Structure formats: structure tokens, C-alpha cells
């Protein structure tokens, strides 16, 4: 790993990025979406706050402040944010509001956090009490949503709420109960409490396959929550269980993981960057916190180095990061191609430099720097 080159690349990303055209969000720029409040930026901004802390460089924090300020009004309203969609993805960028409030004391950061928390208070829930992933996905729990909403929820309770994170822990316990496969040691991508979605098993409500990036989002969330909630023993036990399960499927040569985690070697499957970076981050952070055995730090570093060797190329200050699944999901009803099957997951485009791979890579890099 050439840290100087990676640092230079991150600095170039920052210098070339604006809310209207973030250099890391290739998909948004290509589609002409313009500025939006979104989970991908949230992941990148979280990583940049870590860079500010590790490098002692206020430029990163100031960039995050200026970026977020583009979206915020003094009353805490958020440009492009629509609560009525009840989309958990829209919560994730709110994670950076707490650090900005502590650093700058501007009331708009607290008010914006209150606004996002208000969505969670009104978010539709399954019969078990878990948030619907989005309004368009009724009764559905996706692993992605644990990262998108539950870390923010715990941070909100500790900063502005009562400090009671019982709801967060109960929702994660339901994920363990409904979505974890004891034999495989992995979690399924989705669960439909109503058993009515076309992709859901009619008995268990589970989707068919173990999609890597969904596992990645979950493990990153659990690692972050273990830091926030160090007394939560059941949470830590689930995290250990999940990481032990995932580690069984690492590619021996690279340490990376497959797009469909348990199907390595099956024709069409491939080593995927974003989810591999997320698992590496979770292993490195879990070991640093003492929640995971120290051997996981070596596993995480091997995975990170495997990504660098296999998919990272430099041309001057420019970086190309390949092996990134562009997008994957389950449904909705009018999109039956997204059925959660092996064939579906390997059919999605594999791209370079998309933010869903770049942001987790940078996030993992910040954990490498802490080691």
C-alpha cells in the first residue's frame, strides 16, 4: 500500500468535489442528478471526518462543514430531503451532524438531526417493530437499513435524546432472529415480515441469497455500534458471530469476498470491492476496539491489500478503483428482475470509481491508518 498516493488521491477528490458534482459519485454525475442529500455522500463525509481526526488536518472537517451547509437552512430544513418517502437511506448522512455541532456549535446541525430523528419516530414498522426499509418496500427489512438508520439513531440518543438505545438493540436482535442463517454464518439480504413480496420465502420471509454489500453494510453498522454501545453484550456477540461466519468465505489468495458470499467459484461470481472493503473495515475496527480477536486485524489488512493489488491502479494523482457492483436491490413489484437470486446479483453492472466502492475504500483506509 502506498499511503502517500492514497492520501493524494483523497485530497484530489476533496479539491474536485462540490455538492452539485461530487467527484466520488460517478453514478449521480452521469445521470445528471445534481445535488442531493444521500447515503453515499454520508459514507464519504464520515470517512473524511475520520481523516481529519487521524491526520490532525482541519481541512477535511471544514470541507464536510461546507458540503453539509449547502443543504441546510438555519431552521434545520434539508434541501432535497423528503420525509414522506420514509427512505432509511436518507438518514445516513445525518451521522456527521453531531460532530459538526460539537465542532462549530451552530444550532442548524441540531435542528437537522431533530428533523431526521422525527422521520424515524414516524417510520412505518413491521409487526416485530423494525423499520420498513422504504415506503415503497412495505414490511421489508434490508440489511442496508441497519447501517443507514440505526447508527444515526444511537448517536442521536447519546447526543440529544434520553440515551436509551433499547429500540436500536431490539431491531438488531430481530435481524439476528429473522435473517441470520446458523449453518452459513451469514445474513440474508432481505426479510419480508408479511411474506407477500415476490422474492420472499413464503415460510421464512427471507430472500434467497447472501449479497456481499448488504453484509458489508450490516457489519460496518455493528462495528460502529459496538463503539457507541460498549456495554451491549448481545450486540457484540452477534458481531463476533457474523464476522466469524464471513471470514470462512474469504478468498485465500486476496482476502477479498465474492459478490454472492457463499458461492465462491461458481461461474459468474466475482471478488467485489465495496463489500470487501466494508468487511475489512469491520474486522479492523472490531479488533481495535477489542471486540474481535486480534487476528481479525490481520484479516482486515489482508483484504484491504487484496483490493489494492487486484483493483486499484494509479496514473499520476488519478486513481481507478474497479470491481464495484453498481447497485442491487429487491423488487419492487414492478421490477421482478431484482429477485434476490444468484443470477440476479451477478447480472448487475460492475463498474469503476463509483462512490459505493470508493467511499467504503476510503473508510477502510482510515481504519488502516489507526492501526
In short:
The chain is mainly alpha-helical and 371 residues long. The chain has helices at residues 3-16, 26-30, 39-55, 58-69, 96-104, 107-122, 143-159, 166-179, 212-228, 233-247, 273-289, 295-311, 342-347, 355-370; strands spanning 140-142, 180-181, 186-187, 190-192, 257-258, 271-272, 312-315, 318-321, 324-325, 350-351. The protein has one domain: Glycosyltransferase (Alpha/alpha barrel).
What does this entry look like structurally?
The protein is mainly alpha-helical and 371 residues long. The chain contains 14 helices and ten strands. It has one domain (3-370): Glycosyltransferase. It has a two-stranded antiparallel sheet. Helix 3 runs parallel beside helix 14 (355-370), helix 9 (212-228) runs parallel beside helix 11 and helix 11 runs antiparallel to helix 12. The radius of gyration is 19 Å and the shape is globular. The mean pLDDT is 96.
Unreliable stretches covering 5 or more consecutive residues: none
| Helix share bin | 40-55%
The main sheet orders its strands as: 1-4
Whole-number count of domains: 1
- Give me the CATH fold name: Glycosyltransferase
Q: Proportion of β residues?
A: 5-15%
Q: Give the beta-strand count.
A: 10
Whole-number radius of gyration?
Answer: 19 Å
Main β sheet profile:
2 strands, antiparallel
Helix/strand order, N-terminal first: HHHHHHEHHEEEHHEEHHEEEHEH
What is the CATH class? Answer: Mainly Alpha
Could you give the distance between the termini?
A: 14 Å
Average predicted local confidence, pLDDT: 96
State the helix count.
14
- In CATH, the architecture is Alpha/alpha barrel
Name the overall outline: globular
SS-based structural class? mainly alpha
Amino acid at each position: 500500500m502506498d499511503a502517500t498516493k492514497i492520501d493524494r488521491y483523497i485530497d484530489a477528490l476533496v479539491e474536485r468535489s462540490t455538492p452539485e458534482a461530487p467527484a466520488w459519485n460517478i453514478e449521480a454525475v452521469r445521470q445528471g442528478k445534481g445535488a442531493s442529500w444521500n447515503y453515499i455522500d454520508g459514507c464519504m463525509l464520515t470517512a473524511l471526518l475520520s481523516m481529519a481526526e487521524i491526520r490532525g488536518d482541519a481541512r477535511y472537517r471544514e470541507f464536510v462543514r461546507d458540503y453539509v451547509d449547502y443543504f441546510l437552512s438555519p431552521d434545520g430544513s434539508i434541501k432535497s430531503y423528503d420525509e414522506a418517502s420514509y427512505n432509511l437511506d436518507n438518514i445516513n448522512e445525518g451521522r456527521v451532524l453531531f460532530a459538526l455541532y460539537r465542532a462549530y456549535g451552530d444550532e442548524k446541525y441540531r435542528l437537522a438531526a431533530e428533523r431526521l430523528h422525527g422521520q424515524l419516530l414516524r417510520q412505518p414498522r413491521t409487526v416485530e417493530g423494525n423499520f420498513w426499509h422504504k415506503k415503497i418496500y412495505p414490511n421489508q427489512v434490508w440489511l442496508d437499513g441497519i447501517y443507514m438508520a440505526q447508527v444515526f439513531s444511537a448517536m442521536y440518543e447519546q447526543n440529544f435524546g434520553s440515551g436509551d438505545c433499547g429500540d436500536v438493540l431490539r431491531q438488531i436482535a430481530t435481524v439476528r432472529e429473522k435473517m441470520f442463517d446458523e449453518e452459513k454464518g451469514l445474513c440474508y439480504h432481505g426479510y419480508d415480515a408479511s411474506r407477500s413480496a415476490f422474492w420472499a420465502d413464503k415460510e421464512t420471509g427471507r430472500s434467497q441469497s447472501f449479497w456481499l454489500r448488504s453484509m458489508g453494510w450490516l457489519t460496518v453498522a455493528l462495528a460502529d455500534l459496538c463503539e457507541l454501545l460498549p456495554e451491549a453484550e448481545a450486540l457484540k456477540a452477534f458481531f463476533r458471530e457474523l464476522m466469524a461466519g464471513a471470514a470462512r468465505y474469504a478468498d485465500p489468495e486476496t482476502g477479498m469476498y465474492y459478490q454472492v458470499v457463499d458461492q465462491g467459484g461458481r461461474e459468474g461470481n466475482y471478488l467485489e470491492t465495496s463489500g470487501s472493503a466494508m468487511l475489512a473495515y469491520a474486522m479492523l475496527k472490531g479488533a481495535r476496539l477489542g471486540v474481535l480477536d486480534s487476528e481479525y486485524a490481520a484479516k482486515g489488512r489482508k483484504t484491504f491489500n487484496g483490493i489494492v493489488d487486484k483493483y486499484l491502479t494509479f496514473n499520476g494523482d488519478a486513481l481507478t478503483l474497479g470491481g464495484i457492483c453498481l447497485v442491487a436491490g429487491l423488487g419492487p413489484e414492478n421490477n421482478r428482475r431484482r429477485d434476490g437470486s444468484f443470477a440476479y446479483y451477478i447480472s448487475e453492472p460492475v463498474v469503476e470509481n463509483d462512490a459505493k466502492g470508493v467511499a467504503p475504500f476510503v473508510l477502510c483506509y482510515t481504519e488502516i491508518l489507526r492501526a
